[in-house]
Specification:
alpha/beta, Carbamate kinase, nine-stranded mixed beta sheet, 9 strands, globular, binds adenosine-5'-triphosphate, binds the ligand O=c1ccn([C@@H]2O[C@H](COP(=O)(O)O)[C@@H](O)[C@H]2O)c(=O)[nH]1, transferase, ATP-binding, ATP binding, Asp/Glu/Uridylate_kinase, Uridylate_kinase_bac
């Protein structure tokens, strides 16, 4: 039987930057971002408070080809700025679909977006606005997965939803190993001991310590976000 009420009141959605590319090689695909945003909007209409941490992998990563030979911290700041661009595009698409979104940046660029201030973020969520957290943690050498764990814990989210291109956590990277099999659920300790590369160990450890579960699912599957919010068994659950 399918539940009629959402299973969660407040969620932290981690959106992979690469998921915004659709079938393009780089950047933001218009149809893709509109479809993803429509799914987020649908969930807000169920009364769920939604905060988003957006990645930057569709534009720039600190540890990637484009940053070869660069100072790592400088490259990471570029990666964080890439997430600000994605956040602006997301908020714009949300506004166009009738939902008010507020972008809050971990790096101070006040002419562009407001800075992250926790009580303000909580107020926006209570008001039914979508909060888009940009610039990751604001620190180099981290990732937006860690930012998702951090912001998720700070805002008291009940669940971190890692929306990505694969449909869960596998025994190995399914993009590289076709024999890899998917877990329905596993503990944070298992994920760390097995060195599963779906998320970095810092993000896993923070969620484990805060007892904040993560559900990994594919955002390319229509309706998957709503199914997760309704408590259905989509993707992989990682728990403490
Ligand atoms: N054990 C595993 N199970 C599932 N996916 C894995 C695993 N190990 C590595 N991966 C890879 O991890 C990727 C998930 O990372 P994702 O695209 O969400 O990147 P991100 O760094 O969080 O975001 P961005 O796209 O913004 O850089 C998948 O595309 C998958 O290929
Ligand atoms: O807290 C953070 C978050 C991100 N970065 C840099 O941004 C890029 C893009 O983030 P993804 O998590 O890969 O989508 C990342 O490669 C880092 O270079 C950061 O430095 N600190």
């Amino acid at each position: 039987m399918t539940a009629s009420q959402p299973a969660h009141k407040r969620i932290l959605l981690k959106l992979s930057g690469e998921a915004l590319m659709g079938d393009d090689a780089f950047g933001i695909n218009r149809a893709t971002i509109e479809r993803i945003v429509a799914e987020v909007v649908e969930v807000t209409h169920l009364g769920v408070q939604v905060a988003v941490v957006i990645g930057g992998g569709n534009i720039f990563r600190g540890v990637a080809g484009g940053s070869e030979g660069m100072d790592r911290a400088t490259a990471d700041y570029m990666g964080m700025l890439a997430t600000v661009m994605n956040a602006l595009a997301l908020a714009d698409a949300m506004d166009k679909q009738g939902v008010t979104a507020r972008v809050m940046s971990a790096i101070d660029i006040q002419q562009v977006v407001e800075p992250y201030v926790r009580p303000k973020a909580l107020q926006y969520l209570e008001e039914g606005k979508v909060v888009v957290f940009a610039a990751g943690t604001g620190n180099p050498f981290f990732t937006t997965d860690t930012a998702a764990a951090l912001r998720g814990a700070e805002i008291g989210a009940e669940l971190v939803l890692k929306a990505t291109k694969v449909d869960g956590v596998y025994t190995a990277d399914p993009m590289k190993d076709p024999t890899a099999t998917r877990y329905a659920r596993l503990t944070f300790d298992e994920a760390m001991v097995r060195n599963l590369g779906i998320m970095d160990a810092t993000a896993f450890a923070l969620c484990r310590d805060q007892k904040l579960p993560i559900r990994v699912f594919s955002i390319t599957r229509p309706g998957a976000l709503k199914r997760v919010v309704m408590g259905e068994d989509e993707g992989t659950l990682v728990y403490a």
